[in-house]
Amino acid sequence: MKLGIIFGGLSYEHEISIVSAIAVKDVIKNHNLSFIFLDENRDFYLIPNDKMKSKLFSSGDYKKCEKIDIDKNGFFTKGGFFSKEKRVDIEIVVSTMHGGDGEDGILSSLLDFYNIPFMAPRTEACVVSSNKYLTKSYASECGVKTIDFRYFTKNDKVKVDKYPCIVKPVKLGSSIGVSVVNDEKELDYACDVAFEFDDAIIIEPFIPGVKEYNLAGCKVNGEFQFSIIEEPQKGDFLDFDKKYLDFARTSTAQKALVEDKIDAKLKQAFEKIYNTIFEGSLIRCDFFVVNDEVYLNEINSIPGSLANYLFEDFNKTFDGLLNSLPTKKKVPISYEYVNKIHANKGK
Amino acid sequence: MKLGIIFGGLSYEHEISIVSAIAVKDVIKNHNLSFIFLDENRDFYLIPNDKMKSKLFSSGDYKKCEKIDIDKNGFFTKGGFFSKEKRVDIEIVVSTMHGGDGEDGILSSLLDFYNIPFMAPRTEACVVSSNKYLTKSYASECGVKTIDFRYFTKNDKVKVDKYPCIVKPVKLGSSIGVSVVNDEKELDYACDVAFEFDDAIIIEPFIPGVKEYNLAGCKVNGEFQFSIIEEPQKGDFLDFDKKYLDFARTSTAQKALVEDKIDAKLKQAFEKIYNTIFEGSLIRCDFFVVNDEVYLNEINSIPGSLANYLFEDFNKTFDGLLNSLPTKKKVPISYEYVNKIHANKGK
User: Do B227 and B178 belong together in one domain?
Assistant: First the structure.
């Protein structure tokens, strides 16, 4: 198939999205790939495969590549005085646009609006997973536990009952703006950092040494396909510097040693979260396990390098998902009620 | 100010959105209005003010109006061989696009992406309010009660413990696809109807004669401004035929007789729901009151005719909101980590 990998975006995760797209380039085996870059000015560029190196972007040289437009049914090269605009030959768009523009639902809405098939969470799923407050309320409704938390907006008086705690901007991923706070003295600074990135924050108890497990998967023709479960390597907590390396990972991760009952509980929680709003996307759920209870930490709705490194046969799952993307219901437009108003008014 | 009222959309509420835009035309007093229609083919048209009659749309005659494109910073007339494309002179877009495309976050994402200022719920707020499952989980997290419910997707076996109950598609507004079910015999048909519109449904107990109150409002410069509280007129339950008339309403509603403590509880619940994700929008919350307890029934994130008929001075609130729309944080794009990878790799 002809796939368009879309990446970049106006977001704090702009550059890790680039790293992720580059990683994915070497991982996807059975398809013809094109690369579509969204720059900070919200211009789209078609990047030739052999130019897909991070320096192209950091140097600004991508601007020498062909600028394209999004429109109905696809992306189009710009016509000139002597040339007609041409549709870029892509059947399905695959998103590795992490963070804003990608994971917040903006891009999915665009693709949806312009009727372009895509592998990525739909707008709803993006919103639920990119806002930690909404993730927690959604998880709780689905019957999946999350760590207790408090929510504060910019004008609130921040109050913490117990230290250590962890302060997070409500919307960013990849640990951006996240701090572990050991005592009251450190709280103000941590909140200032988090509020620099967002107008709202959440504060959770920090559980040193908590067991953390990552599990990726998706639904292929109505059946779940799971990755292995990984226990991510971490220091005190996974900061951005360490975490962003996931975006460049292409070699298979090591399977965590997990008891069967925990394995089953993790998969059950994943299914509850995924079902049904994440259809069309390959997601990674990061869980905590405390006293044999599973807690959802976060949903990565577009995980770094599509979490390829967690799958024993990534291409099988990826190809399966490509073939079972959700379709939209046809909405009939009628003027029944307008006509009724006319009739009632005698017009 | 120069406002662009946007309406239509590919949705079941296409035509009531038209009715709503026409109503709003006569209600907004202090601004120059333009009208932007989105048709079922997702083409935008600029409709001259004197052509804003529902027949223009039901007859298809709107196609004779000027087609425009959405692009960076606004809408543009198409250039021809002898004419240059021109930006339509609009400062702020105001949405009366109910249902799909409008209330599901698609349009808000587009306006956001193309950097066009707008009065309407942002993408997140749309998602939370257009999906009843997410509304309930969000409300519960905010500390606002909702009626107990069960959620079913297409392949589930639907089971109901108690009749009468009410069956609703999870995503549609304006009572589309909603049925009251009196006994088991009626259940299958009601579910079929609801599933015709959506892949998921919710079923709630139906409380005959329950007290229902509607309250609209928004935040202007950090302060809430509320409408009067109305007790909507209804039969057994508010069906689409009766409800859609709200979309054409322009005369002030009658204030409900509500005890002070209930009045306060309704406003408190509204504030919890609105705060802070609905900033930039004027919404209407529909509540039930059972034994002096307030339950959120639904959030109309783009209420029919902007709920103008609920306000004693609609233009004052509307103008206030226009002047306190949320602004987006500037996101700096850096290549710090890409450069770090290069350094680590020695490249």
Answer: no
